[in-house]
Write a structure and sequence with these properties.
Bound molecules: glycine
Distance between the termini: 56 Å
Number of helices: 14
Length: about 450
């Protein structure tokens, strides 16, 4: 069986490893933006280029006689790669273009929730000009807004009051930047609380939950510094998170299911792939930050590392509408993922410098990301470099493994030493207790 992976980051490396350990021994193929040596060593063939080039990738998939494709990032979904592959009779994990709007259009996602009375919606407004922007910001109140570009902006399309926007004037100038980039704007009320990621496998009929994960967006220790693609993440052995109640889990699960069904009804298409709800637990319950149409990165690394079931069989069930929850088993282990990133990341990252991974003792949980290879050597390409996932029966033990091993990736790099530590997690639990008025 020939399986094509689209994308070449750590998320796709984790997907490749999960497929590679299947007893079905699939032949892996990859279309990536650079040569990820971790994926390359498992792949029968590997193409590098523009992974949003739908025509070229579909042609290659046919040449390679691909029987299943998995799309990692959102950009090819937005371009309709899943539609083109299905049209060529290649079953694909990753929703078609109209369904992917749940991620690629912030206004579509909010309007779908509103139309279907799905809870967790903030006060929001969509703008196609500056008319009314200032009034709406004023009505939300200073420090209480989030400004989002309606479409994808390479991870730079969301700014939050307090974190990146320090006045209504800042918010207005960001809106102008978005309009200059020919996008519309969504302004929302800001939520205060703890964020978490809740991903589900979807087959167009059924929806099956994965363990919950918490990502860390800020670059530096103690959640300081600029926003990044995610510096690391953790999941707990009970598949929930230490600051959540069983009701929080249930409420988020209900919202994921409601959005899944509403989205399919709205588009008249089956959603086949991963639906990833990004939620926030607040004083008043769980709310929705956004939805994504793919595995999270780094969240995929946490969950796929502890997936005990055959991932190829899960994918086959997803594309045939026959997925049952008993088919999806995760180990009852805690995981801590830490990313090593180039010095200067995210604003002015070091690039094209060689790194070494030989000091990493157990490479089976090392996932390579924004790297390229030349003459057998590994070079930085400027984004997140490599992640290590520590797995153990408790969070402190998983953190110790991840911390020790990520230090084995050497070069002009840094990582967040605090991710997964008892101190940081306890701080999150205390914050949540304080918000809920339990102190
Ligand atoms: N963890 C953030 C993302 O994948 O979008």
């Amino acid at each position: 069986m020939n399986i094509l992976i689209i994308g070449s980051g750590a998320r796709e490396h984790a997907i490749a490893i999960a497929l590679h350990r299947s007893p079905q021994q699939p032949h892996l193929y990859c279309c990536g933006t650079s040569t990820n040596p971790g994926i390359k060593q498992m792949a029968h063939d590997y193409w590098t280029g523009d992974i949003t080039d739908v025509t070229t990738i579909t042609k290659l998939a046919k040449e390679w006689q691909i029987s299943l494709a998995i799309i990692g990032p959102e950009a090819p979904l937005e371009k309709g790669l899943a539609d083109a592959l299905w049209q060529s009779a290649i079953p694909t994990i990753g929703p078609k273009k109209s369904l992917a709007r749940i991620e690629t259009s912030k206004s579509f996602a909010r309007e779908l929730m509103q139309k279907n009375k799905i809870p967790g919606l903030p006060r929001y407004h969509v703008f196609d000009s500056m008319n009314g922007v200032e009034n709406f910001l004023q009505s939300l109140g200073e420090g209480n807004y989030v400004v989002k570009a309606n479409g994808l902006m390479g991870g730079k399309g969301v700014r939050v009051a307090g974190d990146h926007l320090h006045s209504i004037a800042d918010a207005i100038s960001f809106c102008k930047e978005i309009f200059a980039a020919k996008q519309t704007v969504v302004i929302e009320e800001k939520f205060i609380g703890q964020e978490f990621s809740f991903m589900c496998f979807c087959d167009g009929e059924h929806i099956v939950p994965m363990p919950l994960v918490q990502d860390h967006k800020r670059a530096f220790v103690d959640d300081k510094g600029p926003n990044t693609g995610g510096m690391g993440s953790y999941s707990d052995a009970n598949h929930s998170l230490p600051f959540l109640t069983p009701k929080d889990w249930e409420d988020a699960w209900q919202m994921n299911q409601a959005v899944y069904h509403a989205l399919q009804a709205e588009c008249g298409e089956k959603y086949i792939g991963v639906l990833y709800g990004s939620f926030i637990a607040t004083r008043d319950g769980v709310s929705v930050i956004e939805f994504n149409a793919r595995f999270g990165d780094p969240e995929a690394l946490n969950v796929l590392t502890i997936l005990e079931s055959d991932f190829v069989a899960i994918c086959q069930a997803m594309v045939t509408g026959s997925l049952i929850k008993e088919q999806v088993k995760f180990a009852s282990d805690a995981t801590v993922c830490k990313y090593a990133v180039p010095q200067g990341y995210p604003d002015a990252p070091v690039k094209s410098v060689q790194i070494e991974i030989c000091a990493v003792k157990n490479k089976s949980c090392l996932y390579l990301s924004a790297v390229d290879t030349m003459d057998g050597k590994i070079y930085l390409t400027g984004s997140r470099t490599a992640a290590y996932v520590g797995v153990a029966n408790s969070l402190p033990a998983a953190e110790e493994i991840a911390e020790k091993e990520i230090r084995g990736v050497s070069g002009p790099l840094f990582h967040r030493e605090d991710i997964g530590t008892e101190r940081l997690i306890q701080h999150r639990v205390d914050e949540m207790r304080r918000l809920r008025g339990n102190d």
